[in-house]
Amino acid sequence: MPEKTVSNPYHIAQNRIRTAVDKLGMPDDVYERLKSPDRILEAAICIRMDSGHLKTFYGYRSQHNNALGTYKGGIRFSPDVNADEVKALSIWMTFKCAVVGIPLGGAKGGIACDPRNMSSRELESLSRGYIRQVGCVLGEKMDVPAPDVYTNPQVMAWMMDEFQSMYGGRYEPRVITGKPLQLGGSPGRLDATARGGCYAAREAAKTLGTETKGASVAVHGFGNAGQYAAILSEELLGSKIVAVSDSRGGIYNEKGMDAQSLIDHKKNTGAVSGYENSQPLSNKALLELPVDILYPAALENVITAQNAPDIQARIICELANGPITPEADDILENKGLIVLPDLLANAGGVIVSYFEWQQNEWDGEETARRLERKMIQAFKQLNEYQKIKENVTMRQAAYMYALERIVETMRLRGWGEFV
Ligand code: GLU
Q1: Can you give the pLDDT at residue 3?
Q2: Are residue 131 and residue 81 in the same domain, yes or no?
Q3: CATH code of residue 152
Q4: What is the Å distance from ligand 1's center to 54 Cα?
């Protein structure tokens, strides 16, 4: 098979559903019902750039399934965004919400652009233009976006505001989550994905009979999730950060590096490389370090059949969506490494989005406490389920567990007999 097919995230997501359907002995109709998103909107967004010229960007919103509740999922700004990627990510949202037991469906959006080379004015125009084009399928009871790769609370604020303008000024803050606090955002949403991942890593370490105190940590991708993973691994887990990388390369210090000063360095210089008392390290080498915990926190398909044989981390906690290909999964499984699947490991983000969508009362501490409870519960349930099912990986268990919930709900709604 050509590499493109093998690494197409949409095909990967479909194959994972297929495997779960087969392992559960469910009828083919289940796969037929879930293999494609319910709806996908593609938009050309034409904005004026600072140069004075017009430029057209392509954006998408994919709504996969809303059996469990309102469509829900982030919007990413990234150069490689395309329809298939967004479709895959929307499938993963459906399954993720089901795994952690929140009553939401799955959706995802994205715009192919490089926000690193755009001014704030251009980004605002793009964000507003996107909402003007896809806002017709959004709404607090319809489809609720949130941040994802390279989008942040400011982008959410522009989008919420544009949505309001579209509907004659109707105030509807629940149309989007991950908003700034002043606009009804939830304290604790910014670090939620990483925090949830740290709780999952801690629970996984317990099952291995080890502790995370003093554990060595490598972070691949130093954006929002990666940076908070570094901070919280120190704070919550007592672990030490020995390596981090971003798109320009990585750095290493076996004695450990201070997470906050790494973040400051990245803010000041634009990259992690050049950090004091560290050795340069390629992204490839970072992934292959013999660390206790590895957080892939960038994009899809970074651990593949090519590098999987060289991966040595004891626990791999998928903060990114889809960082490990199915072929790599098999290799890691045979090596006896623990893979905490994205459907569980990065669900902290959408869990706190759910909190934000529901209420506006809890402070950061309360939010973190409730997130912790949900993550521990989800981890334990999945762990139990995996044992009962026998001979399935934690990822397969996650798909199967989610699938049972989704199918049961679809049956109750009368969406099909599934024969
Ligand atoms: N973008 C995040 C994810 O992939 C969060 C989605 C949300 O909060 O709705 O899970």
Answers
A1: 45
A2: yes
A3: 3.40.50.10860
A4: 31
pLDDT above 70 covers what percent of the chain?
99
Of residues 299 and 99, the one with the higher pLDDT is 99
The pLDDT score that the predictor gives to residue 321 is 95
From the CA of 69, how far away is ligand 1's center (Å)? 15
% of the chain at pLDDT higher than 90: 96
Name the band, by pLDDT with cuts 50, 70 and 90, for residue 6. Answer: low
Residue 383 falls inside a structural domain:
no
- Beginning with the edge strand found earlier in the chain, give each strand of the sheet holding 338-340 in spatial order: 279-281, 249-257, 240-246, 216-220, 293-296, 315-317, 338-340
Domain span at 164: 36-178
Give me 419's structure tokens. 């024969």
Of 345, 380, 410, the residue at which a domain comes to its end is 345
Q: How far apart are CA 240 and CA 258, in angstroms?
A: 8
CA–CA dist 102, 374 (Å, integer): 9
Residue numbers annotated as active site:
108
Q: Is 146 in the pocket of ligand 1 (CB under 6 A)?
A: yes
Whether residue 355 lies inside any domain: the answer is no
Using DSSP bridges, classify how beta strands 106-112 and 240-246 pair: parallel, antiparallel or unpaired. unpaired
Q: Does residue 353's CB lie within 6 angstroms of at least one atom of ligand 1?
A: yes
Mark whether 119 and 201 lie in a shared domain: no
Same domain, 173 and 220: no
Residues 202 and 306 in one domain: yes
pLDDT, average across residues 331-360: 97
